[in-house]
Every structure is written in C-alpha cells, then in structure tokens.
Design brief:
Blueprint lengths: L3 H18 L10 H12 L2 E6 L1 E2 L9 E6 L4 E6 L5 E7 L2 E8 L6 E2 L3 E3 L4 E3 L4 E2 L13 H12 L3 E2 L3 E2 L14 H12 L2 H16 L9 H26 L18
Helix pairs in contact: 4-6, 5-6
Length: 260
C-alpha cells in the first residue's frame, strides 16, 4: 500500500508535466481596437431625414442635399428621391445643418441642429423658393451707339462702288451729333469714288465746252475739275452736315419728319 501523501505528490507532479507539454495559449485581453468596435455602433447610429418641397408643396426630385458639420465641413451629399425625400443614415452624434441646391430654385440652408446618439432627426420646413432672375441692363450714351451705326453705314455702297453713307436701315436709329454729321459728310466728300466722279464731270464739261471762259487743254480741264470738286464738296457739307445740324433754338419740324 502507498501512503496517501505520496500518491498526492505524484498526481501534482503529473499535472505539472501535462501543463508543460501543452502549447502556450494567449489570454484574451481588451485593447483600444476592441473598445472602438464596441463604441462605433453607438456613434454612427443616428440619422437625418427630410423632404424637399417647392413653395406650392410639390416634391422636388434630384435636388442636391448636403449634410454639413457645425464647423462648416461637408460630411455627406445625396440627391433627393422622386418624392423629394432624403435620408442620411449611420451618422455620428453632433451639430449639423442641411444645404439644398436645385436648378431653378434659390439655395436653402437650414438652421443648425443637434443630433443625439440613435436619434432619427427630421429636418423641418425644407421649402425652396423660385430663384430670382438676374437681368443685366447695359446703359450706353447715345453718342456711342450712333458712332457704331456710322461705322456700319460707312461700309454701305450701291452696287459695291457708289457710297451710300447717309442711309440707315435701322428703324430707330440714334440721332447724330453735329460733329458726327460733319465727320460723315467729310468721309463722303473725300471718298475715292468722289474724285473719280469729279473727273468724269470735268471731262464731260470739257467735251461740251461748258463754261467757255475756262478754255480748253489741260489748263481748262484743271479749272473745270477744281470748280466741280469745290461745288460738289460745298453741296455735300451744306446738305449733309450744316443744314441738318441742330440749332441752339427750337426746331420746327414737319409732321412725320425727324432729323437724324
């Protein structure tokens, strides 16, 4: 028979041998990663929803809805559904605001609101107003408008040759100043075609011996050319610049006649 104390010592030694023969198993421990995994569901469990409507209460689909942090940084963005609804899910608790932009509507910005953990927040009164139309009106002096019309008129020629500077095809043409009238008359009087026309006129007078006092030959032709040129240029300035120029006193116009 073996004493009981010796048997107990053998069992203890056997257990020690068995424990030393087994591989080491790491003990479970709690680290930062496990703690984060435990708290993540509670941090991303809130939601923000709402419905985008117009002033008449109709749903606005395809609106760009942005969820903005209280510090101004954008968190999420989405387009409103066909019924105008939007829903941001799994967001952390904090302060937010919603900005909505849609074509044809003025931008909408909600008031800042706070969302708690696991709260389903409903954004109230997301109503878009019609965007105001921007109408740009450019006001220019009449003198500048008339100058642009003159530049167009100076390119007008009958059959591409004969000047037609004093005809405006604009129904409500801008009136010319007296300086512009004299400038246009000078442009017409000293046009190259005008010199050619004066030459033809002097040649006809030379052939028919008009104004015999000028004589014949080169001297007679030169006198006729100079007389025709001065006569034509005087007529141009009188009829196209001096007479139509505005007078300092009141002007008397016939019914239906307007001085340009």
């Amino acid at each position: 028979m073996v004493p009981a104390s010796a048997l107990a010592q053998q069992q203890t030694a056997g257990r020690g041998i068995i424990s030393r023969s087994l591989p080491d198993v790491p003990l479970p421990h709690s680290g930062p990663q496990n703690s984060a995994q435990q708290t993540r569901p509670s941090e991303g469990s809130a939601s923000v929803a709402g419905t985008v409507l117009d002033v008449s209460g109709g749903a606005v689909s395809g609106a760009n809805v942005s969820l903005i942090h209280g510090d101004g940084t954008q968190l999420l963005a989405m387009l409103s559904e066909a019924d105008g609804e939007f829903n941001f899910t799994e967001i952390p608790a904090g302060s937010y605001l919603v900005i909505v932009n849609a074509k044809g509507f003025a931008p909408f910005t909600s008031v800042e609101f706070a969302v708690a953990v696991e709260q389903a927040y409903e954004v109230p009164d997301v109503s878009l107003s019609i965007a105001t139309a921007n109408i740009e009106v450019t006001v220019r002096p009449i003198e500048l408008i008339a100058a642009e019309q003159i530049r167009a008129e100076e390119k007008q020629r009958l059959v591409g040759i004969i000047p037609n500077f004093f005809t405006s095809y604009i129904f409500d043409a801008a009136p010319l100043t007296w300086k512009q009238k004299f400038s246009l008359a000078a442009r017409s009087a000293f046009d190259p075609v005008a010199f050619i026309g004066v030459g033809f006129g002097a040649a006809i007078e030379q052939a028919t011996n008009a104004y015999p006092g000028y004589g014949q030959g080169a001297a007679g032709y030169s006198k006729r050319y100079a007389a025709t040129f001065v006569d034509g240029r005087s007529s141009d300035f009188l009829t196209n610049a001096l007479f139509p120029a505005p007078s300092p006193g009141p002007a008397l116009l016939l019914p239906g006649l307007r001085l340009r």
